[in-house]
TrEMBL record:
Homodimer. HAMAP family: Asn_tRNA_synth. GO terms for biological process: asparaginyl-tRNA aminoacylation. The gene is asnS. It comes from Phocaeicola plebeius CAG:211. It catalyses: tRNA(Asn) + L-asparagine + ATP = L-asparaginyl-tRNA(Asn) + AMP + diphosphate + H(+). Residues 136-457 form the Aminoacyl-transfer RNA synthetases class-II family profile domain. Pfam families: tRNA-synt_2 (PF00152), tRNA_anti-codon (PF01336). It comes from the Bacteria. Belongs to the class-II aminoacyl-tRNA synthetase family. This is Asparagine--tRNA ligase. It is found in: Cytoplasm.
Length: 467
């Protein structure tokens, strides 16, 4: 076969130099046609759109044609021609075809319309579907948007460790990391495991959040963000929880909670706008195939300013709804950790736009949050989104050494884990704030997918670590 430099399909479909000889490589999505001429829809992953290859059967060997099946990988040389029927501006009149990889009829993606559950079982192949191609291209673009947003605003990308000895959220949901022989654990006279000979010489785990180390950086570099994987051994099998998920955590010196809310709102709107500007073909595909309200919802979020409301006011609204006959599965009362149904009621039914709930009871929030004067609440903020519920959790941080120490002691957090964190308050303490955005929750919103397992390539959930 003649050597011609390969063109990606995304670029090829924009070309207008009809008559040029081109080469494309990709996988066969469909093949149809008559006894004289066949049409192959070829996709190379660079775009949701296929290029149509027109094949005059008389010009090709019969044995070769038999190998052009759904899923097969082809290299095609041909003439770029203006298209009339393919739905694209350009198509290729094939001159030479090479089958790089054959694909027999055991290929599970023969026809369209598989259930999402089935596609999860073949997560190694699902990127080859239109849906997952779109989702993973959007995932890439969102990651770029995030770095761009912070870089343009003078934030530094700071790398926090994945292996840690401290539990940032204090929720006891950590995966332990050890090289000890689990069949032969050494214990002391109280029955406690002795970690002296473990790899790190103490108990270590995968991190649930980079925030504590992020605060060390913010109180030195001014404004930082982290963007990396985090791990939570929470046994919740829901469409919104993963055991391994990616989180973005900005942390900013001298920001109070209002600045923090401004940053969160600007950040999310920037990401949503980016999706509409840079992933429109993919977003439109998902809108048309799965979720007819998707584009409207994305545009809706951009138009309106987010409601900002204290937790206590939110509870009043929910209690009124209950009094007026609205049925929730879980009870509503001051002090309760809101369930997703409560959050979604506020966002989708009451306000009909995103809500930032602030000033939560201190008992349901982490130790590091700034304590309010009422002695009952802390300067927390959760951003609640339509269809998702909590998409961001954050707070202004307690900057006062004594108050922070008291809270750590009240919660029985071991001081041996926290001395370095307390040093930020001991040496030149400053007001500061930050938050964490769940990357996959943002992707749920932007793609309209219903299950968080479908916006990460290889989901890790309770009892599932396949691939
Ligand atoms: O509210 P969370 O637990 O807050 C923190 O981890 C803070 N350290 C953040 C900070 O202030 N720097 O988690 C933050 C966000 C949640 O709002 C949610 O979007 C996401 O992380 N998240 C999860 N996403 C997927 N699966 C899970 N199991 C998640 N847990 C939290
Ligand atoms: Mg939270």
């Amino acid at each position: 076969m003649e050597t011609i430099r390969r063109t990606k399909i995304v670029d090829l479909l924009k070309r207008e130099d009809f008559g040029a000889m081109v080469n494309v490589k990709g996988w066969v999505r469909t093949r149809r046609g008559s006894k004289q001429v066949n049409f192959i829809a070829l996709n190379d992953g660079s775009t949701i759109n296929n290029v149509q290859i027109v094949v005059d059967l008389a010009n090709f060997d019969e044995e070769l044609l038999k190998l052009i099946t759904t899923g097969a990988c082809l290299s095609v040389n041909g003439e770029l021609v203006k298209s009339v029927g393919s739905g694209q501006a350009a198509e290729i009149q094939a001159r030479e075809i090479e089958v790089l990889g054959t694909c027999d009829n055991t290929y599970p993606l023969q026809k369209k319309g598989h259930s999402m559950e089935f596609l999860r079982e073949i997560a190694h192949l699902r990127p080859r579907t239109n849906t997952f191609g779109a989702v993973f291209r959007i995932r890439h673009n969102m990651a770029i948007a995030i770095h761009k947003f912070f870089h343009e605003r003078g934030f530094f990308y700071f790398h926090t460790p994945l292996i840690t000895a401290s539990d940032c959220e204090g929720a006891g949901q950590m995966f332990q990391v050890t090289t000890m022989n689990l069949y032969d654990l050494k214990k002391d006279e109280n029955g406690s495991i002795i970690y002296d000979n473990d790899f790190f010489g103490k108990q270590a785990s995968l991190t649930v959040s980079g925030q504590l180390e992020g605060e060390l950086a913010a109180t030195a570099l001014g404004a930082i963000y982290t963007f990396g994987p985090t791990f939570r051994a929470e046994n919740s099998n829901t469409p919104r929880h993963l055991a391994e998920f990616w989180m973005i955590e900005p942390e900013v010196a001298f920001n109070d909670i209002n600045d923090n809310m401004d940053l969160a709102e600007e950040f999310i709107k920037y990401c949503v706008q980016w999706a509409l500007d840079n992933c429109y073909d993919d977003v439109k595909f998902l809108n048309d195939m799965f979720d007819k309200g998707l584009i409207d919802r994305l545009q809706g979020v951009l138009k309106e300013s987010f409601v900002r409301l204290p937790y206590t006011e939110g509870i009043k609204i929910l209690e009124e709804a209950v009094a007026n006959g609205h049925k929730f599965e879980f009870p509503v009362y001051w002090g309760v950790d809101l369930a997703s149904e409560h959050e979604r009621f506020l966002v989708e039914e009451h306000f009909k736009r995103p809500v930032i709930l602030t000033d939560y009871p201190k008992e349901i929030k982490a130790f590091y949050m700034k304590q309010n004067e009422d002695g009952k609440t802390v300067r927390a903020m959760d951003v609640l989104f339509p269809k998702i519920g909590e998409i961001i959790g954050g707070s202004e941080r307690e900057a006062d050494y004594d108050k922070l120490l008291t809270r750590i002691q009240e919660l029985n957090i071991p001081m041996k884990d926290m001395w370095w964190y307390l040093d930020t308050r001991k040496y030149g303490s400053c007001p500061h704030s930050g938050f964490g955005l769940g990357f996959e929750r943002l992707l749920l919103f932007v793609t309209g997918m219903a299950n968080i397992r479908d916006v990460i390539p290889f989901p890790r959930t309770p009892r599932n670590a396949e691939f």
